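Format notes (please read before filing issues)

Several people have asked whether sequences and structure tokens are stored in separate files. They are not. Every record keeps both together, in the order shown below: the sequence lines, then the token lines. Line labels are part of the format and must not be stripped during preprocessing.
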Amino acid sequence: MTEIPNDLSARVVIVGSGLAGLMAALTLAPEPTVIVTRAALGAETSSAWAQGGIAASIGADDSAELHLADTLAAGDGLCDTAAAASIISEAPVTIAALERAGVRFDRDSAGALSLGLEAAHSRRRIVHAEGDGSGAAIIRALVRAVAETPSITVLEGYEARRLLLDGERISGLLCATGQGMAILPTSRILLATGGIGGLFDATTNPVGNFGQGIALAARAGALLADMEFVQFHPTALDSRRRPLALVSEAVRGEGALLVNERGERFMAEVPGAELAPRDIVARAISAEIARGGRVFLDARHALGKRFASRFPIIDALCREAGIDPACDFIPVRPAVHYHMGGIATDAAGRSSVPGLWVAGEAASTGLHGANRLASNSLLEAAIIGMRAARDMADIFAAPAVLPSQQIRAAAPDASLIRPIVSRHLGVLRNAGAIHGAIAALLPLVEEEGAAADPAIVALLIAVFASLRTESRGAHARTDFPLKLHDAQRRMMRLADALDIARSVIPYSFARSA
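Then the structure lines:
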């Protein structure tokens, strides 16, 4: 039996309780709002695990123009320049908004915001909270603010399973709860569901995050954009821990060096060296590992005994693995960290489906292009979360017309998908691997079982990857190592991707015969 809690009818529904969702809910206040979250409020979110902080051009030697230039360079020709400029220009006011919400950013002895340096930034512009615990500190503050806001209803233990439509418009959200299924009637939904790291064996993200928002929106007919661009963080701590612990770029920003098992500094001659864009560093580390080598961060000389005070969380994670970063090499490897692609949105977070907004990692605004610049993600999440909230507040809450028939949606399970994606859609790709992924994933999508939703997201990544016959940003193909002269973003719906996948399968079988 499906419950329909009419006392919550017609409210804005926010799916997810990371930075984007929490800022949206606070911005909507005092309008009644519902936050739907699978776990406890603010838990199991990538936002809470962010070590680096928020990029903001507030230093005396910095400007929005310099921040934009760095963003465009990292994005490797695929950023939407207007969208990026708009978001970056709002960084200073966003830091102020977060402080008003209760976030306490680190400041120096003179009271000025402390600014860190990360890869591919030309200036110190990373604003931190509690050192390398920025994400957790920010989320704790926002969770407190939400708890103190009476207009926000939080439904913990609610897992979004389907977007309900009246024709082409949003009419509600189907959720699984501990007591069964529930429908929230609404004509306005914000998806703030995070990333796709749970599709891969090696990730720094919560393993339960397989791209739920993308699967929901894809089934509803939304346009998806640039799904092939999956960013591998170059320096995850190489240990038995799952998910892998992150060793922030800020460690390299403080002078730590990358060396192989022979002690060679293999990034020394690369422009930017250890602080080159993430895709370049990840490829270089992957090449060292592919030849049978190992890669380490050497922070002994740059930080030494200061490591524990500058990076207390990373220090604790290293010690958990039996490593003292003050005097030992830190073993590292690439791991999935962020997805630049996602649900296509405009500047206000609107998707192509009327009544559906998207913010945070699930969205593709055009800011990140082919490769996200470090610490731009929390900035984007906060800004688009607030923009979407203001836009939703201006939209009339239309009566929700719910479907008459019972809708079934199995509990999603990504366990069958991880080996396929990890093997075929990693840092280095080629046609054979991509087509192999498509051939393995398409039947799982069509079976509509527990693996279907994760398989939809993985299949979209594979199909988009098959169409990009070049190496650009986070998408590297060994069979197409060069970059095309003209950079092109790509958008399509799930139905189009399925047609392409079905056309690829006979080719894949012919190649393997």
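For reference, the curators noted about this record: The domain at 2-195+340-393 is CATH 3.50.50.60 (FAD/NAD(P)-binding domain). The first strand starts at residue 2 and ends at 3.
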